[in-house]
Structure formats: C-alpha cells, structure tokens
Automatic annotation (TrEMBL):
<dbReference type="InterPro" id="IPR036860">
    <property type="entry name" value="SH2_dom_sf"/>
</dbReference>
<feature type="region of interest" description="Disordered">
    <location>
        <begin position="412"/>
        <end position="455"/>
    </location>
</feature>
<dbReference type="GO" id="GO:0007165">
    <property type="term" value="P:signal transduction"/>
</dbReference>
<dbReference type="InterPro" id="IPR001217">
    <property type="entry name" value="STAT"/>
</dbReference>
<dbReference type="GO" id="GO:0003700">
    <property type="term" value="F:DNA-binding transcription factor activity"/>
</dbReference>
<feature type="compositionally biased region" description="Polar residues">
    <location>
        <begin position="438"/>
        <end position="448"/>
    </location>
</feature>
<dbReference type="InterPro" id="IPR013320">
    <property type="entry name" value="ConA-like_dom_sf"/>
</dbReference>
<keyword id="KW-0727">SH2 domain</keyword>
<protein>
    <recommendedName>
        <fullName>SH2 domain-containing protein</fullName>
    </recommendedName>
</protein>
<feature type="compositionally biased region" description="Acidic residues">
    <location>
        <begin position="28"/>
        <end position="39"/>
    </location>
</feature>
<feature type="compositionally biased region" description="Polar residues">
    <location>
        <begin position="416"/>
        <end position="425"/>
    </location>
</feature>
<dbReference type="InterPro" id="IPR000980">
    <property type="entry name" value="SH2"/>
</dbReference>
<feature type="domain" description="SH2">
    <location>
        <begin position="619"/>
        <end position="717"/>
    </location>
</feature>
<feature type="region of interest" description="Disordered">
    <location>
        <begin position="18"/>
        <end position="40"/>
    </location>
</feature>
Length: 717
C-alpha cells in the first residue's frame, strides 16, 4: 500500500492504493495492514479476505473493484461491479479451472462467477467478505452469505506455491472508493464476526433533529433568511459522527462549516475584500466567520448556529450548500456532510413596521388583515390546557393562515380556545394542504374585514411582565433560543401573561402558528420533568431500555391512546431522535420529549385520534421517517400509482417549532414526483365526516399506501 503507515494509524485508505500479497502460508498479508491473519492455517488451501468499502456517488456499474495479477498472467478481475450494479466474485488465476483470462471478453457475467442479488450501495460503508478455497468460493456482504459456487482446482499439489504468486490490487481510481480495516485471514475465520468488529465512521447531517430556521420546500430546496445583519436569521444544523451501524462515535474531532455553490461545489467567496464572510456563526451574541470557529464533537454530535450573509439573488440566483468537515487531517468524502440546496432570501419587511421604542404598530399593518383576540379568551385557553391536561376542540373553530400575508385571521366571535384547537392546522405557506383547499391558497381578506382600533390600542396598553425585547427575540431567534425564552417565561409568568405573550408573538411574527406551542409550554415542561425524574431516579443517566416503559406510559396518557401503545419501530425512531446510545441523559431525553409531546398532543384531538386508533386499514403506520415514506411510495417496481399517499409526523420538527406535532401527507403527484405537504385540519363539529373520507375527497389523493416495516411487538404500558 502506498500509504501503509497512515493506514496503520487511521485504517482509511484509497481503494486504488490497496495491494494484497497472498504469500504467507495461505493466510496472506495486506501491505501496511495490522498483522492479523499471519501464521499457518490449519490444513488445506484457502483464505478469507474481508474489508469495509465506501464507493462515491460517481461510481458507475461495470467497474473493477479488485483485480488479480501474477508474473505469468495479465491482470484479470477478481471482484467487480457488473452492469446491473451488483457485486461479482470470480475464481483465482493459477488455481481454478474456471478462472477468467485476459482473453475473456466483457461482460463479466459471461464468466464463471458468484454474485450478490442486491444492488451495491453508494456513499455508504458496507462490508465485503471473500472466502476462496480449493473447491469453492463464497461472497459475503454485511456479514451475510450472498453467493457461493463450487470450483475445480488445477493442481492441488501446487496450490500453495501458485497462490504466493498472486497479488490483489485495487482499481485505478474510476470508482472513487475507499477501504477500511482490510484483513486477510485463514479460511476458517468467521466473516460475520469480523463484520461486527471495529466498524468505520461517517459524518452526517442529523435530519431527525429540528431544522431550526429552515423552510423546506416541496422540491427539496431549503429557504433561509439571510443578507444584511439587520435582516438575516439564525439557523441551526446538527452533525453526527456515526459508525456503520448507526451508533454514535465518541471521538475528539473539531468540525468546521463552509458555504459552497450547490451546482459546482466551489466555495462562495466574499463580494469584496472588506465584506463579511458568506457564512457566519454566532457565539456569545457575536458573529464570526464560520471557518474561524470550529465546533468540537461532544458524544459524537455538534450543533452549528449559522447565518448567511450572501443572498442567492446577488449570486445569479444560484443555490448554496453548507459543507461540514473536520478541521484537521486528510479530507475524506465520508467525513464530509452536506446540507440540502439552500436558497438564501431576504426578509420582506414592507408588510409591517415595528415600534421598538413603544408598543405601537403602523396602522396599515392590521387594518384589513388581522382580527385581534381578547386577552380573556387567551386566558381561558390556557386554563383549558392546564386544567384538563389537553385542549378541547370547539365546534365554532375556523382558524386559517392566509398564504399571501401569512397573518392569522379570526372572526370576532371566536375564542383563543377555538383557535388553539386548530393550532396544528395553521401551516407553512408553501407546504399547506387544507381539507377545503388542497394547495393551501386561501383567498385574501375582503375589504370589509377590518380591525377595531380601539381593541388594538387597549390590547397593547395592557400591563405585562414580558418585555418587548423578549417578544422580539422570540420572533427573530432560532428554536433553541425560543426554548430558553419559554422556560424562563413559564417559571415566573402567570397564565394571563403567557396568553398575552402568545398573542403578541403571533402578531409581531405575522403568523399564528406559534400560539399553540407557547400555550402548551408549561404543561410540556412539567410533564417532561416528571417523566425524567421517574426514569432517572435522581441519577444523571439511565438505561434506554429502562426508560422505554415510562415513555410509552406518558405517550398513551397524553395522546389518549389506551388501545395503541408505541411499537418497536416507534421506539427506534425516538431512540434516533434522542441521539443516545444504550444510556440516556437529560439532554438526549429533552431532545426526544420535545418531539414526542407535540405529536402525542396532536393525537389527542378527536379527529386525528380516531384515525390513529384505526388499524384496519392502518391509516397512520406509526412514526415514519421521510425516507420510509418515500420508499413506500416508490415500491420495488417504481413509483406507485398517482394519488397514492401515506401519513407521517415530520421527524425534523420539535417544540417550540410552530409545525411541531403536525401531520404530513406524502403522495405521488400527477407530475410523477413525491410531494410532502403539511395537513391543515378543520375540527368543526358540524362536519361529522371522518378524516379518512375528507382525505380521499382531495383531487390529488386517491388511495392509501402501505409502509412495509419489520414485525415488532408493541411496548407494554
């Protein structure tokens, strides 16, 4: 191996540098390897070769992974990708009668071989094991036997001597592959045992956590508010270092973030020498170039609070990506993580003007767009939350968010209780699916709709312990900072203050999605404290398996779901959201709880509760990831029929994100593209039809899809 010393230290190397000599008494030795497998094997010819491999996204079918050569023979393939992107193992030259020769034409499927049935994964670590003996060869992938063929030996007397002449060499770089922990062992060695030992690591963006400050479009492009300092907003992303089995890798590593163009991968540069860096990070209230402030991984995880100073409109409308990579050491593609394409936009401030010195608003802000709620109604709503443990749906609720203005509008005779009952129905402009309006394009307010200025004046003249600074910070900061603000608020503020704060945030932010998250905050935090105390028993950490029962018990109580506990797959999703290993700390618990509670709260509402309890058919399979939903809609034979849909809760939305606990419908559109839309619900009692029937009335939805998951028993309460 060209870089053998480095391989000893890090065990990562380029595939093209791999060179293996089979010259150690049948055991063989990998140049620059760790010395395992040296010495004599017990009887008979043969060897076991196993290693981890990572193939880049540019790898193409019909490529050689390993080739074999000797002094008397030209290079011939040993391990290849065929034209169907499947692994193929071929016999050894000089040893087997069925071995290929340089005269054999392509394709390799015409040669004697054994092959795997599954496609070879790209941009992902997987384990390969090759066992070659006198009379057979076996191919293993991820510890499992996937192919086997019987062979005939040319000359058993000269097998050992002939094998010493064979050298296995990595390909010439066409695959862009990397290898890890290469071992040549006796034929008797267990490939499955080697598979579970010392897996490699990969740096990834944690999509199970909330994408703070990010708006996800249906085309997979993120929208982030950036530009000048007075307008740009924080957004938070988390990266994780995981091994090949999805477990956190506890390794000291400083990770740095940089901004690239999505189309070319080249760095986004300053517009001029004295301009700000294109990507900034926030630290102690100050902004620094992100490249100057690396973040240390803690328990395999790092959180980045970032801002973008460059607008896409100033860069020929090009999209960006954020790239994360280690600050020190050699750059490897598996130790780099990339965000989705980003469109950096400016915040439109023309719709409203805020008076920071006094509690005043421009009179043009709300005259024809918002009907204010009385503070007493808000107080009644919060009493419902804390008095009954869950909100009660009103029979007069009709709260919607106008996509043109994204301001909320409520009729004068409607209370905040009714509005909160529909909290999850107020969804993002470009992702909303209304039961009465599928694309979520609600008509704008009519000219007759106006705000009572007397109510407006009296509304802001009310005395409150919550400062203007806290209100504006909540509107502008990220979800993490909002969490801190709410925790401080509920510790001292009255229920009336919390209700007033919720209304002011909705008013200043121009969107009422925040109301429900603020109103339930005291109950959410208290239930979380009680649950953690019951799990931890005053210890700093607890075993995950010991916590499962209590988590499930609380979920069933909040969700009013006595007949349907959490399934094994649901608990796996929660385990991934927590980001913990076998044991659980308070930070990991909170991360899980802030996602679970809003979901359980949404499920407690009558219309969603009924569809959750329906098991034949199962309208909500459980906690399903975006990837699982898309896999179900693609199917083994391609996209499912147009209109096929599945329901899921977004794993990237946690309290106090305004969309936490929302229900998403993923469906195959008429354009043969999978769309993800937030579901807007109307809980009016006068419409007694089931949610199932309302869904099927939508023109874009025609049939319920099926998410096929492995069988797993439910968690006992």
């Amino acid at each position: 191996m060209a870089d053998g010393e480095q391989c000893r230290e890090e065990q990562y190397a380029k595939l093209e540098d791999l060179r293996i000599s089979l010259d150690r008494g049948g055991a063989g030795e990998e140049e620059g390897g760790d010395g395992e497998g040296e010495g004599e094997q017990g009887g008979g010819f043969g060897f076991s070769l196993c290693f981890w491999i990572y193939l880049s996204g540019s790898a193409r079918p019909s490529s050689i992974i390993l080739k074999q050569t000797s002094e008397s023979e030209d290079e011939v393939p040993f391990l290849v990708l065929n034209e169907e992107n499947k692994l193929i193992l071929l016999p050894l030259v000089l040893i087997h009668k069925e071995a290929p020769s340089s005269e054999n034409p392509f394709p390799w499927t015409d040669m004697f071989h054994t092959a795997a049935e599954m496609d070879c994964p790209l941009e992902k670590w997987f384990h390969i094991g090759c066992q070659v003996a006198e009379n057979y060869m076996r191919l293993h992938v991820d510890g499992k036997l996937v192919g086997e063929k019987s062979l005939f030996v040319l000359s058993s007397e000269h097998c050992q001597d002939d094998m010493k002449k064979i050298i296995l060499v990595g390909n010439d770089g066409n695959l862009g592959g990397y290898i890890y922990h290469v071992q040549v062992l006796p034929i008797s060695a267990s490939i499955s045992d080697q598979f579970v030992k010392n897996p490699p690591a990969k740096l990834s963006l944690d999509n199970s956590c909330i994408l703070d400050g990010v708006e996800e479009g249906g085309d997979g492009v993120w929208s982030i508010v950036g530009g000048k300092a007075s307008c740009r907003r924080n957004f938070s992303l988390e990266v994780v270092l995981l091994d090949a089995f999805g477990r956190s890798v506890h390794r000291e590593m400083e990770v740095v973030a940089s901004l690239l163009y999505a189309d070319s991968g080249t760095p986004v540069e300053k517009t001029r020498d004295d301009a700000e860096a294109p990507l900034l990070t926030s630290c102690d209230g100050l902004e620094y170039p992100s490249t100057d402030r690396p973040v240390m991984l803690l328990r395999g995880r790092a959180t980045f609070k970032l801002k973008i100073s460059q607008l896409s409109s100033k860069c020929d409308n090009r999209l960006f990506r954020v790239c994360f990579h280690p600050l020190h050491g050699q750059r490897y593609p598996f130790l780099e993580a990339y965000s989705c394409p980003i469109r950096c936009i400016s915040r439109n401030r023309s719709n409203r003007t805020l008076g920071f010195g006094k509690r005043s608003l421009s009179t043009t802000v709300l005259l024809d767009e918002i009907h204010l709620l009385k503070a007493s109604d808000g107080l009644q709503a919060i009493r419902d939350v804390y008095g009954n443990g869950q909100l009660k749906a009103s029979n007069q609720s009709d709260l919607k968010c106008s996509p043109q203005s994204k301001h909320f509008k409520v009729e004068d005779n409607r209370s905040t209780t009714e509005a909160v009952a529909n909290g999850s129905s107020e969804q993002r402009e470009n992702q909303e699916m209304g039961i009465n309006n599928f694309e979520g394009t609600d008509s704008g307010p009519s000219d007759s709709e106006s705000t009572d200025l007397k109510d407006l004046d009296s509304r802001w003249s009310q005395k409150s312990v919550v400062s203007d600074v806290a209100i504006f910070r909540y509107c502008l900061e990220s979800t993490f900072e909002r969490t801190m603000i709410l925790k401080q608020l509920i510790a001292s503020a009255s229920n009336e203050d919390i209700a007033n704060f919720a209304e002011q945030v909705c008013l200043y932010s121009g969107c009422s999605h925040h109301r429900n998250q603020i109103l339930v905050s005291k109950h959410l935090v208290q239930e979380g404290d009680d649950t953690w105390n019951s799990i931890s028993r005053k210890k700093q950490r607890a075993l995950w398996m010991d916590a499962v029962s209590e988590i499930n018990k609380k979920f069933m109580m909040v969700a009013n779901s006595a007949s349907r506990p959490l399934s094994g797959q649901d608990l796996e999703i929660l385990h991934g959201i927590a980001g913990c290993g076998d044991d659980l700390g308070r930070e990991e618990f909170d991360r899980m709880w802030y996602w679970l509670y809003p979901v359980a709260f949404a499920l407690s509402k009558d219309r969603i509760n009924r569809i959750w309890k329906c098991l034949s058919p199962k309208w909500i399979e459980g906690f399903v990831t975006r990837e699982e939903a898309e896999s179900a809609l693609k199917g083994p034979g391609g996209l499912q029929k147009t209109g096929t849909f599945v329901l899921r809760f977004p794993t990237s939305r946690s309290w106090p994100h305004p969309d936490a606990g929302s229900l998403i419908v993923a469906y195959v559109g008429t354009d043969c593209i999978i769309h993800h839309r937030l579901l807007s619900l109307d809980h009016r009692d006068r419409d007694s039809r089931l949610l199932q029937d309302l869904l099927l009335e939508e023109p874009e939805l025609s049939q319920l899809g099926r998410v096929v998951r492995q069988n797993s028993s439910s968690c006992a309460s």
